Amino acid sequence: EKGGYDYFMLKEIAEQPKAVADTLLGRIDAAGSLTLDEIRIPVSVLREADKVVIVACGTAFHAGLIAKYAIEHWTRVPCEVELASEFRYRDPILGQRTLVIAISQSGETMDTLMALRHAREQGAKVLAICNTNGSTIPRESDAVLYTHAGPEVAVASTKAFLTQLVACYLVALYLGQVRGTKWGDEILAVIRDLARISHQVEKVLDTMEPVRELARSLADKDTVLFLGRHVGHPVALEGALKLKELAYMHAEGFAAGELKHGPIALIENDLPVVVVVPSPRGRSVLHDKIVSNIQEIRARGARTIVIAEEGDETVVPYADHLIRIPATPTLLQPLVATVPLQVFACELATARGNEVDQPRNLAKSVTVE
Ligand code: M6R
């Protein structure tokens, strides 16, 4: 049932192009409009919502962090993202005009379930983004947008994450569509880019051998740091989480702009630091800032592992290892930038002799608070 792969995780990483395509299937019409009738929340509620609050745990939380950038950029509706386990304990401000989005692969995560119950008690409408048909979280929500990743067996989430991102983009674009905000050429271009993205994920998968080799060469390291900016920051957090749960290594993700506020003190000779570089097109200011960060950490001895768009030559002189990803619009970059980090963590786990599909102390769905 592992389809010829050694681990479910490898199989699920390889299934990502299809999972992404399946999650888009039937949801965008030929004219480039979104047809999300399955979101049974009345359009009037979506139009009048004055705030979006996303609740989720772990990898799903990272998808939520990325969704915030898309939702606020495309709809101009304020969006908060909160760890489900913290949410109800701080007495959050919720009302009938709050749209809550609960993201969960399993649909059974107790922390997320308790957060959504709390939100509904306060009168908020809850939309679930979920991969498991008929599970508890969608059953208790007002509406659900299913991700079509297929069953995910490995404890470490991979294909579910990519499809959660796709679902979040769809919700953000749909909100923009029904609210009439910024509905123009940019959005149509994004929809076209989304339709092509599964091929780009496939391209990334085809070029992963050097990443595996690199991972094996780092098997005896204690720490790996991850840096990113904008949507690359949650990607860095996700890269670090994957490494913790699979390789049992100390791994941390930082917003690159925070380096100078403390974390740069951690940099020492030969410390591996993975840097997710934003596209040089689009938000080029951020691109240039992160290139300076790479120079700074390298000057202090870091071994720089740089993930950058094809054609971005500015990073070449400062990259000890360069991992190329296809050019995408800034907001969609996590769909391609996360894949090498999954492969990296999986290979490090194998090199360290760890159980890939069933890491110690972890369960696939966490049904206790
Ligand atoms: O089933 P869920 O999406 O609600 O699970 C949330 C987290 O427990 C999950 O993403 C966890 O962090 C993964 N093991 C990460 O790979």
From TrEMBL:
Q: Indicate where this protein is primarily found.
A: cytoplasm
UniProt catalytic activity? D-fructose 6-phosphate + L-glutamine = D-glucosamine 6-phosphate + L-glutamate
Query: Which top-level group of life is the source organism from?
Result: Bacteria
**Annotated EC:** 2.6.1.16
Q: Which GO terms describe its molecular function?
A: glutamine-fructose-6-phosphate transaminase (isomerizing) activity
Places the protein is found:
Cytoplasm
User: What does UniProt list as catalytic?
Assistant: K364
Which enzyme class, named as a word?
A: transferase
Residues in SIS domain copies: 42-181, 214-359
- Keywords, A to Z? Aminotransferase, Cytoplasm, Glutamine amidotransferase, Repeat, Transferase
Q: How does it assemble?
A: Homodimer.
Report the protein's function: Catalyzes the first step in hexosamine metabolism, converting fructose-6P into glucosamine-6P using glutamine as a nitrogen source.
Report the protein name in the record: Glutamine--fructose-6-phosphate aminotransferase [isomerizing]
**What organism is listed for this UniProt entry?**
Streptomyces chengmaiensis
